[in-house]
Amino acid sequence: MNRFSKMFLTLISAAAATSCGQGGSSAGEGGDFRYLVDQFADIKIMKYQIPGWNNLTLKQKEYIYHLSEAAKYGWDIYWDQNCAYNLKVRKVLQTILEEYKGDRTCSEFGDFTVYAKRVFFSNGIHHHYAENKFTPDCGQDYFRSLMEASGCGDQADELIPVIYSPELFAERRSSASEGDIVALSSVNFYEGVTRDEVEKYYAGIIDPNDKEPISYGLNTKVVKDGNGNIVELPWKVGGIYGAALEKVCEELGKAAAVAENDTQRKEIAELVEYYRTGDLKLWDKYNITWVMDTLGTVDFTNGFVEDYNDPLGRKAYWESLVNIKDNAASARTEILSANAQWFEDNAPIDDRFKKKSVKGVSAKVINAACLGGGCYPATPIGINLPNADWIRKEYGSKSVTIANITHAYDAAANEAPASTLEEFAYSDEEKAMQKKYGAYDDEIHTDLHECLGHGSGQLLPGVSSTAMGEYASALEEARADLFGLYYIADPKLVELGIMTDKDAYKPQYSNYIRNGLMVQLNRIELGRKVTEAHMQNRQLIAAWCYEKGKDANVIEKKVRDGKTYFVVNDYEALRGLFGDLLAEIQRIKSEGDYEAGKALVMDYAVEIDPALHKEVKERYDALGLKPYGGFVNPDIVPVEKNGKVVDYEVRYCDDFLGQQLEYCHKYGTL
C-alpha cells in the first residue's frame, strides 16, 4: 500500500514492431534532451534519463541489465490481473497494427490508434487511474472490419462486446457503496465467488493473534472447485503465470551471478524460491533480507507487492522497479531516517499508537533504470516497502524518492506552453511562492510521506492489517500524506537544514488544497465519483480541513470573474487541522475501526460537486494539457567485441507504440 503517485504536475507514431534501441538516441547526460515523446487522449508520454550510468562498473551494468530483463518478463502478468480479457484484446490490437493493409490515413484508423495507445498505456481496457472502461471513438462496425482484414475476425463476436459494451467489465476495481464489490469488479483476482464467501474463507484460516501473520491471499486467485468449495490458485512457477515467472527467475539467476554483495545474492535466491513454491512465508523471509540490504548501489523491487487494485485490499498486482542510488541527493533522506524516532515521538497522535523504538528506517534518493508491471508506463515517484506491518515494526523499511522520474515530470511540464498554476492559483503571491519553493517542497513532502509517514505508528495487539478492508488504501495514503504535511511546516526541518526557511512550506499547503478540492477533478469524467485511492486520499484531506476550518475561515472559497479558487488564509491553523486528522486516521487504523474509516472515506472522499467539476474540466481543457503522464523505458543494450560483452549502452526511446509492440514480441509469454 505504499506508493506515492505524482500529485501536482498536471500533466501518433506509425505502428511497427521495431526496436526503440535501434531507433532511439544513445545515452548522453545533459545536452539537448527532449522529455516529451507523445501525447494522446488524456495522456502524455515522456522519457527519463539514467544519471551516472557511465560511472558504473561493467559488473553493475550487467546486474542492472538482468534485473531489467526480469522486470520486463513479468509484463503480461499485470495485464492479465487487471482483466481476464486484456491479453486477448491486446493481441488483436497488435495484429491490426502490424498486419492491416488498408487505409491508415483516415480518421477512423486514427481513432483506433488512439484507443490502442490508451490500452497499452493502461495495461488493459480500463483507465489506469479512474479505473472505468474506456471505448474506441471509431464505430463497432469499423473495428470489426479491421479485425476481419487483419486475420482475427473469428474473435470479433467474443471481443467486440468486451470492448464496446458499457455493461460488461464496467470498472476495474469497484468501490460501490452498494452491491457486491467483488462481483462488480473486473479484476481477475476472483472467479465465481462473492465478497461474503471470500471474507468467510479468509476469516476461517487467519489467526488474529499471530504476531508474524503472513499476507494470506497476496499471490492467489480465489475460485470454486468442482464441488463448490472455495480454493486458492497460486501465482507461481508451475501455477498461474508460471511461464512468465519462469523467465523472471531465469533472469534473476543471471543477476545473482553478478550481484554487488552476498546479501543481494541471498535475497534473489529467496525471491526465486518464493516464485517457485508460492510460499508466502518465503515472501516474508525475502522482504526481511531485502530490507537489510542497504549497502549496494543497485537495488530493485520485484513481486506481487501492492493491493490497490483489489476491491478487498488483499490481492497484490505484479510490479518491478530497478534503480540506482543517487548518493548526493540521498543526504537529506539519510538525515530524516537518522531522526525518525524524534518524528515518531513528536507526532500529534495518541501515545498508544506510537512506536517506542523505530527500527531500520533506511531512506535514499534513487534513479530508475527500468520500470515493469504495475510501475510501467505510469510509475510512482516514491516507494516505502515492505507492506507487512510486523516486518516494518521488527526490521524496518526502505523508503525511496525517485529523482529522475520527478525531474522528467518537471522538465516535460516546462516544455508545455501553459500551466495549472497560472489558471488555478488565486494570487500573484501564491504563484511566486510556488515557483520559488514548489518543486523542492514536492520532493520533501515525498521524502516525509515515504521515509517516515508509511513507517510511522503501530497497530494495537490483535488488530489485523486488513481491518480497513476496501478503505485501507485511501486511509493509509491519507495517513502518510498527513504525516508529511504536518512535518513539512515543523521548525525541526529548518533546524536540520532540510527546509531553507520557516515559510518555505506554505506553497505545499496551498497547492495541496487546490489540488485536493479542485484541480485533480480534471482527471474524472463528468458524472462519475472519485474511486482511485490516491485521489480519494487527497480529496478526503482537503475537504475535511475545508469543512472543519470553515468557521475560522482557514480555507476560503473565492469567486473572481466567474472562476472558483480555494485560498489558504491561516497556514498555522491548517497545520493544526492536518494534525487533528492524522490523529484520527491513526486511531482508526490502530484500533481497526472499520465503520469510522468507511464514514471518513464515504463522507469526504467520493462525491463531487457537479457544478465545480464541470467548471474545472472546462478550465483545464482550455489549457491543452494532459492530466496523466507515463514513460517509455530506456533500452539497455549489450555491446559486444570479439564475441564478448564489453559494455552496456543506454539508448533512449522516442516511440511509445513501437516499444509496446516490441515488448509484445520479446516479453509476451502468456
Topology of helices and strands:
Blueprint lengths: L2 E2 L15 H4 L1 E2 L9 E5 L2 E4 L11 H16 L1 H8 L3 H14 L7 H16 L17 H10 L6 H9 L16 H4 L10 H11 L14 E5 L5 E5 L7 H15 L5 H16 L2 H13 L5 E9 L10 E9 L4 H9 L1 H6 L15 E13 L8 E4 L3 H6 L2 E6 H13 L4 H5 L3 H26 L18 H17 L2 H5 L10 H12 L15 H16 L6 E6 L2 E6 L2 H21 L2 H11 L5 H12 L6 E4 L3 E7 L2 E9 L3 H12 L3
Parallel strand pairs: 4-14, 9-11
Antiparallel strand pairs: 1-10, 2-16, 3-4, 5-6, 7-8, 8-9, 10-11, 12-13, 15-16
Structure description:
The chain is an alpha+beta fold and about 675 residues long. The protein has 26 helices and 16 strands. The strands form 5 sheets. A 6-stranded mixed beta sheet has the order 1-10-11-9-8-7. A 3-stranded antiparallel beta sheet has the order 2-16-15. Helix 11 (about 260-275) packs antiparallel against helix 12.
Summarize the structure.
By secondary structure, this protein is of the alpha+beta class.
What are the defining features of this structure?
alpha+beta; 3-stranded antiparallel sheet; globular; 670 residues; 46% helix
Q: Roughly how many Å apart are the termini?
A: 27 Å
Sum up the overall morphology in one term: globular
Number of helices: 26
Beta-strand residue percentage: 5-15%
Helix content: 40-55%
The largest beta-sheet arranges its strands as 1-10-11-9-8-7
Structural class based on helices, strands and sheet pairing:
alpha+beta
Poorly predicted runs of 5 or more residues: 5-19, 21-29
- Could you describe the largest sheet, including whether it forms a barrel? 6 strands, mixed
Mean pLDDT: 92
Q: Radius of gyration, rounded?
A: 24 Å
Tally of strands: 16
